[in-house]
Design goal:
Length: 500
């Protein structure tokens, strides 16, 4: 899988790299001034990936291809051609995002060795703007999980403490940015899979509003929840990549028809500490029994500091909180049971080989062997909640809760600009600790699934460090399609309220 035996790379290993990355703007300045090249940057990341192989963040690395592309981009710059917005930006993508002629397996045995026949729209947009895709990243199988332990490639490790999980499902993508193996990475977020690993790894992770980034070429888990999200080390970089990825797409009818938006952040306004943001703090979320006391304290302190600096911060009631996780797991497993029915051994990937079988036993054996335990659990759960006699009791009820949540959220954003809450109730879990208790793992999604149920944009900001040594994030949510306020407010918070 990890094809690091390329002789071109061996040549580049000998180069003493002076390269360092802070953000895309700086990198572009360095390129303009001739202080670095795309080739140097790419070679640097390839070496870092080789050194960090044990973290198991990437499952495939496109060595010669990325070096070739880097050289081509350097030549383009030399010829003074018009350059893309992400010129030479080194990106890694989650193993659920299709890239033509590259393996895409959703970290599942059932898609073993499957090669993508087309580019996802996200990849098309990245390439159009001159990005370099360096490889694809480990994740939980079909993006189901919170630890990156349900992967056919084995677990990915948190680079800050290798005994801890990096979070999931986009764990590999988070570690790729955390450990400096690329500049930016893409993940997918159905119930927190970008924000939760960003929280555990101490980086920024955004899930835009539903319908902002095309899902064309994103392997589906639960289609009315799934969104591609972005991992980065700075809000400015997040804004730049979101600018490239958002916009209408003929291949995805759920994407907004709004023109592509720009998200350039006004340094002046966003940096100013005193302001008049109207911020809501969900009382039932912050007072929830599952929340770590230190996380709670630090968020309250932040709220006090914001108030002192002139912002309006109000605690508001949110009594639906305990219905959020059940509604999410009923609806997403229902959608997953339907989405994953296409993996039957006939059309894609793994096929159980036994010619004597009849058709239904062939399907059964293929699916039993091809899917992992967590995926099978969810397919069964989803099939059950959709079954005759139970549909109204589970699926319909969960849809009703979703509607109530959407209505309540609309009300909140009539009065407030942003909502703040924790991203996860605890810091990164010990490896293996969630494997025996899937319910505990599901309950830890309490703060992230809300934004997917309501379609709102949400981000996890690495503002805090726990006394246990691990980082944790603040989650910010804004109104549907209000990514600009989300980014500006985040920029202001990161500039003024980072506590370590
Ligand atoms: N932890 C959530 C789940 O297991 C998140 C998944 C996701 O966002 N892809 O469903």
């Amino acid at each position: 899988m990890f094809a690091l035996c390329d002789c071109t790379l061996a040549f580049f290993y000998k180069i003493p790299f002076l390269f360092s990355f802070t953000n895309i703007e700086e990198y572009h300045k360095q390129l303009d001034e001739g202080k670095t090249t795309c080739l140097e940057a790419t070679s640097y990341y390839l070496e870092k990936i080789a050194q960090a192989k044990h973290l198991n963040a990437l499952v495939e690395v496109y060595i010669s291809e990325s070096l070739e592309r880097a050289k081509h981009l350097d030549e383009k710059r030399k010829r003074s051609e018009v350059l893309g917005k992400l010129h030479g930006v080194v990106v890694a993508i989650k193993d659920v995002i299709c890239y033509k002629d590259h393996k895409v397996t959703a970290a599942s045995g059932i898609l073993k060795d499957f090669i993508s026949l087309f580019d996802s729209t996200a990849v098309t947009e990245l390439l159009k703007e001159d990005a370099i895709v360096i490889g694809n990243c480990n994740c939980d199988e079909f993006a189901m999980g919170s630890t990156n332990e349900n992967s056919v490639y084995g677990k990915a490790l948190n680079a800050l403490d290798e005994t801890k999980v990096p979070g999931g499902s986009s764990g590999g993508s988070a570690v790729a940015v955390q450990a400096g193996l690329c500049m930016i990475s893409l993940g997918s977020d159905t119930g927190g899979s970008v924000r939760q690993p960003a929280d555990f790894c101490g980086i920024t992770g955004i899930k835009p509003s539903y319908g902002v980034i095309s899902r064309h070429g994103l392997i589906a888990y639960a289609s009315s929840f799934d969104q591609i999200g972005i991992f980065s080390n700075s809000i400015g970089d997040t804004a730049k990549v979101l600018e490239v990825l958002n916009g209408p797409d003929v291949y995805d009818s759920t994407v907004s028809h709004q023109e592509k938006r720009t998200f350039s952040l006004s340094h002046q306004t966003a940096k100013s500490k005193t302001g008049t943001y109207r911020i809501a703090l969900l009382k039932n979320a912050i007072e929830h029994e599952s929340l770590d006391q230190e996380i709670k304290r630090k968020i309250y302190t932040l709220a006090d500091n914001l108030k002192e600096d002139g912002h309006e911060v109000s605690e508001i009631d949110f009594s639906l909180i305990d219905f959020i996780v059940p509604a999410y797991y009923v609806l997403t497993t229902a959608e997953a049971s339907s989405n994953l029915s296409r993996y039957d051994g006939v059309r894609y990937g793994y096929r159980y080989q036994d010619n004597g079988d009849n058709l239904s036993s062939f399907y059964k054996k293929t699916r039993s062997k091809g899917f992992g335990k967590e995926v099978k659990r969810r397919i069964m759960l989803g099939t059950f909640v959709l079954s005759e006699g139970y549909y109204d009791a589970y699926f319909t009820k969960a849809q009703q809760i979703r509607r109530l949540l959407v209505n309540q959220t609309k009300e909140i954003f009539r009065k407030y600009d942003a909502l703040i809450l924790p991203t996860v109730p605890t810091t990164a879990f010990e490896s293996g600790s969630m494997q025996k208790d899937p319910i505990a793992m599901y309950l830890a999604d309490i703060y992230t699934v809300y934004a997917n149920l309501t379609g709102t944009p949400a981000i996890s900001l690495p503002l805090f460090k726990h006394t246990n040594g691990m980082p944790f994030g603040l989650q910010v949510i804004t109104n549907n399609y209000d990514e600009l306020t989300l980014l500006e407010f985040s920029y202001m918070l990161m500039n003024n309220y980072k506590t370590y």
